[in-house]
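Re: glutathione structure - here you go.
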Amino acid sequence: MMQQRLRKRIEPSINGVSAGTQLQQQIAALSPTRRVPILRHGALLVWDSQAICEYASELAGAGWPEDREARAVARSACAEMHSGFEALRSQWPMNARATGRRTPPDAARAADIARIDQLWTDCRTRFGVRGPWLFGDYSVADAMYAPVVLRFRSYGAQLGETAAAYVSTALADTHLQSWIAAAVAEPWTIGYSEIGT
Ligand SMILES: N[C@@H](CCC(=O)N[C@@H](CS)C(=O)NCC(=O)O)C(=O)O
């Protein structure tokens, strides 16, 4: 995955049951915004997911659809993810190794999920003819929505046929599988991300 290949990994060398405070201190030492992801590439620091994807795309000479219209929609989809879906992101924290979690229903979260279902279905229907990803070939949009795919896997989401098929595609990807395997192998737990029963 675009982010996965180039992003700096933060490896807390701790054994406690909750990595919260130490992890936040480690992040603060590396990131001026106290948030991740960050990318260090030589002397360069890039400190935002969308900027990292843009940088990786420039280095690779790939990552955005060739068609201008598709590219504009892909950029809109990425921007929507980057600045939106507050209810989904706050109520369902990304917890890559968690599965089968259930949380109380919430109207705002349901609206976010319905919008993502609509968006993915639209992208797949209009631009997905070349392959199984949102815009056919793998793109930055798939990298930006990978955390949403993982959330849907962890907490369960009712999706239409096209969006559900996209989740299956993304989860079958070897890079996302590696990400999940790395999460499963982590010995620590981040308490505030352990949501649901
Ligand atoms: N603008 C940032 C926001 C990233 C963000 O909110 N990261 C969260 C995790 S997904 C974070 O670092 N939270 C701090 C923490 O968990 O301590 C981006 O998309 O790169």
